[in-house]
Amino acid sequence: MLSIASSTFATGAGARMIGRVTLHDTAERGFASDNYSGIHPEILAAIVEANGGHQVSYGGDVYTERLDEVFRDHFGAQARAYPVLNGTGANVVALQAVTDRWASVICAETAHVHVDEGGAPEKMAGIKLLPVPTEHGKLTVEAIRSQVWGLDDQHRAQPQAVSFAQSTELGTVYTPEEIARITGFAHEQGLKVHVDGSRLANAAAHLGVSLRELTTDVGVDVLSFGGTKNGMLLGEAVVVLNPELDRGLDRLRKTSMQLASKLRFVSAQFLALLEGDLWLRNASHSNAMAAVLREGLEGVPISHPVQANAVFVELPATVRAELHEQFHFYDWDVARGQVRWMASFDTTPDDIQRLVKATRAALATSSASSASSAE
Amino acid sequence: MLSIASSTFATGAGARMIGRVTLHDTAERGFASDNYSGIHPEILAAIVEANGGHQVSYGGDVYTERLDEVFRDHFGAQARAYPVLNGTGANVVALQAVTDRWASVICAETAHVHVDEGGAPEKMAGIKLLPVPTEHGKLTVEAIRSQVWGLDDQHRAQPQAVSFAQSTELGTVYTPEEIARITGFAHEQGLKVHVDGSRLANAAAHLGVSLRELTTDVGVDVLSFGGTKNGMLLGEAVVVLNPELDRGLDRLRKTSMQLASKLRFVSAQFLALLEGDLWLRNASHSNAMAAVLREGLEGVPISHPVQANAVFVELPATVRAELHEQFHFYDWDVARGQVRWMASFDTTPDDIQRLVKATRAALATSSASSASSAE
Amino acid sequence: MLSIASSTFATGAGARMIGRVTLHDTAERGFASDNYSGIHPEILAAIVEANGGHQVSYGGDVYTERLDEVFRDHFGAQARAYPVLNGTGANVVALQAVTDRWASVICAETAHVHVDEGGAPEKMAGIKLLPVPTEHGKLTVEAIRSQVWGLDDQHRAQPQAVSFAQSTELGTVYTPEEIARITGFAHEQGLKVHVDGSRLANAAAHLGVSLRELTTDVGVDVLSFGGTKNGMLLGEAVVVLNPELDRGLDRLRKTSMQLASKLRFVSAQFLALLEGDLWLRNASHSNAMAAVLREGLEGVPISHPVQANAVFVELPATVRAELHEQFHFYDWDVARGQVRWMASFDTTPDDIQRLVKATRAALATSSASSASSAE
Amino acid sequence: MLSIASSTFATGAGARMIGRVTLHDTAERGFASDNYSGIHPEILAAIVEANGGHQVSYGGDVYTERLDEVFRDHFGAQARAYPVLNGTGANVVALQAVTDRWASVICAETAHVHVDEGGAPEKMAGIKLLPVPTEHGKLTVEAIRSQVWGLDDQHRAQPQAVSFAQSTELGTVYTPEEIARITGFAHEQGLKVHVDGSRLANAAAHLGVSLRELTTDVGVDVLSFGGTKNGMLLGEAVVVLNPELDRGLDRLRKTSMQLASKLRFVSAQFLALLEGDLWLRNASHSNAMAAVLREGLEGVPISHPVQANAVFVELPATVRAELHEQFHFYDWDVARGQVRWMASFDTTPDDIQRLVKATRAALATSSASSASSAE
Hints:
CATH topology of the largest domain in chain A: Aspartate Aminotransferase, domain 2
Structural class of chain A: alpha/beta
Oligomer: homotetramer
CATH superfamily of the largest domain in chain A: Type I PLP-dependent aspartate aminotransferase-like (Major domain)
């Protein structure tokens, strides 16, 4: 079994160690986010393997060249991938690829592009977002239709694209049929479709389908494909699936400050993730951990179907407070007492059991106290 | 001696190796750029050490916390560092920090921000650049003054900052005195000063001064501090030296798509670089290699003083063609027959000797051929 | 007494008249918008008076100088006015004055800035809007509060301002008390308040208060003050009421392409509007016409309180179709059968009576037909 | 015969005149700029004629409809005109029409877009400008070629258009042949050509050619056509000559805050200017006045060929000071003692004679004083 602990280079005799040590407890894991985790060992190994010697910078290296083929294997021969630095960057580059300067983009009110990107789509690319309310974070044709109007009205930033996350920010998953309905309607209306796939692997794992069946085959035009949340140190890719849109992407990437000079290290990580089945193993694992967690919470109010690696739970304030003392996680909607618990590629069954047990205990105490105060 | 080769994890028995191998020749090094190199072993070790377990994402980790102190050690107690993803991103974030929405920024015609960033300052931040001609890539008070006019003219994008690279894009270095003259004049005129320090370490190594003596002590307001070109996988930092300007930097970073989620790995690399003297060792080494190269080229026309890790050489076309067959490097100014040769932290004396020898040989052949054709 | 007749230029012997004629029916008026109307005679006279000779361009003229005083008379000694070209421009300049680069602005879902400006706030100024649902188009503290969160969250475009229209896009009016509640809450939260006052005069006329009582006195920070919809050919003004925000406004105006070169003609129009009581007469008149219309429609469903110069009416499709043949007006919400009828400074009582009569007739036919089809 | 006198509204019994008077001396004219002048009488008459009644706003009026035909008459059947508000706005809309998001635009160092628009191209549209030095403000193929490189380099904001002013900011004029050379080269290189024609009429008048011969016929793609400097109150037009580029212009105009609601008044002015020959009469007149001025200055150093309506003169400081006391004009290049004198449609021969006489007198005094001080 691979063991980073046994890695010799950190203790190599010749290395001038200057008191650097691992500053954190590597045994501690929480449920705050899949980006609290580190690097999967196979991906770290790929970084090491790609090191040494010189390689052409800015994407002219052999790893990036090879990656291009690998992405085509996954998404079809027409696909073209542009590795970038982070998820916000991927989305902003991708949205520029599907819009004119006068466009707006329809998304869910809960969309990462709308809520969590510091306004980067608007500020960096001038893209107006048209957020719509959804159930469980999933766009529908009806929801999209509510914003498809005024197409001949010069006063309205013209809706030119739909953007949705797969899996969603609320841990739900679109089926291929649902996506096909969205892309069908969108294309009919002249809109392009962008998928924020920072957790696309989790959706594919949940559905037991290929990445292609979730994207190319159901009409998605451009994809932000996630690496970071699935075990990479850092790296996402803008994947252009509709070849008509493959214009100037390398320039958009550069202009949008998303081009790494030593790109080989981003590409090598993606190779580790995508050449074999690591992407699927990692996603399946984190999904499975979420499912176990969900089962362990039988009887506790769960806000959304648990289809990927997130579990949204509603809990009394005292219970949340007690759990916050033991685990890292985020309150999602304080008004509703809702928290988000996320599993990661490195979440263990033991981690889940500890959380379940602690929750059960806190709930019991809480009930007892309620009962007692009700007497 | 540290040996990544002996790293066990890549060959760990349990790892499902799927045919990935190092795809490139790790013994090959050229002179194209310091970003053709890979990761310094000590920095790679730091990535490994920072791995495992969970850490708060987006900068709430202990490595980033520690890094803050380390930057203060280097730049003074008032300094505040914001690790970002790449050099273009660092510059665009930094320039936003020193400008209002109606500003322009004075820079050298040869500045990276003007020439090599795909228009990101203009496109992402709306910053108008006012490029001025220079000698050897270095701004002077006179050059800056040529653009400091119209300060009360509403039709002119108001000059609010000066931006220069240290060391410069042409391998030259500003002395602390030269910087003080620039910052003195700039401040007198109400302008802020930004330094693009993607190779600041090389300048410090050349001058034998501390990072602080080149920046804080001579009035620099905001700095882009480079890591990638000095041995990191990836990572730069915006360092605010003038505390009056430390407003909203974390938000500018996010909005500018420059915030890594697993920021601990960027910060851990910087710790490896900056806690000890690795930053200086790497820079001194690459400078030294450039100096050796320069000496070896005695008699060959050199375009600019060789003060950092770049050597600009003028060569006949046939010589350039012959050398291009053996080494990676860039033609800089084809009209002048000028090439750029850069040394990196991993350039060896042997690499230099091979280049010198090949150049000498090609020049000899070229002369002979000229002589012969002249007969 | 003013007499355009005395102007000699139009009858100058040398003028080569080339058959130009009035191309439209100057007796035709509809209910589509107050910007379908033309120029009020007194304002046209002011343009004529400001003509001839040379005046410093870009605001250095005596009309703009005088206007500055007039705005101070209306809004207080601290007020500073910047005449601009149109309403979208006024809003975009004003919103830039109350935000940093990383900000968002809270507005009503029905706000002109959100719905009718072609995305200019996002596209030209990078301002993210946070639209909230409202009743009758009016923001409340509760509605605003729903978006005031995440102020310490770097992932959220930081809410820094509230923007609302007075009178609103739905013809309703905020009382000074309602505004004070909004500004009180906003300031408490560190937010600035912008008022889109393209129809501020109508609100003041409705309430019988001064412009100042609706703005400066109740804590508004920056105002877009409308001229075009109240009888001007063209012209709005950004009025900075909070002197702390009066930084760089002239530059923002220029950079935002909102500075007229022959600014004297915009300023002269504003002088005609604001030096006397024309602003109030025009607004009172259009309000009164809307009130008469509303009274005439007794029994017909009215969607919103009629407080300014707009009447939103719900009508059967056949009735709308019939009326569209006789009058210009807009369907507002087709699903609800809602139309918007606007009165203008030049709407006459006769115009209103014709509309009322035609509506009554169409409704009667419609009822008869319904009754008949129900038999 | 048109008679504003017959307009009844100005003398309507009910108009409450409030003491407004013409605030400036309508007999005073200077040489500062053609935008210091007012409105030509025929154009003012057209505004009056277009007044009254209601017309569809935002361009749906009959004046704008008619204008479309008139522009086609001047520029060819494929031309499409979009009236906008000011010159900066026209240029920024036009440049967006010829560029992708990753583009740069080559222009003269002296170009209005570069020097006098407050950075609007960069700030509002993200367009990077590549200024090149010129002689007399005129681009040449050689000058353009100096910036046409790196077309396959993702680090360079891609040159996609050339923009030049006709007549230039220095009062010089491109011949059709010169333009054809520029457009030929540009198109060969895949670049589009934009002409800033805020004074195109002056160029046509100078050359004795039609507007079409200077634009459509020699390959210009998009034009900013000026009205304000040729006698209009306010108004320019973006004219798309290359039909391939006529995409989304109405939306770009709106998004760029350049759409007037009462557009009929902009269009009506243009009709007055363009339906007959007023555009040519005005331009010819101002050119002629400049020519007379130039002749009167025989022996005084003139910086640039006088081909349009500007004269750049070099004068001793004492002479400039003395003239500044009598006339409005701008010092252009203080270091060279250079001033700019501009003629306008309303400049009279007497105005010119006064200026010539004053200059001669000041020069004589200056010489005498020099001579005397030299004794």
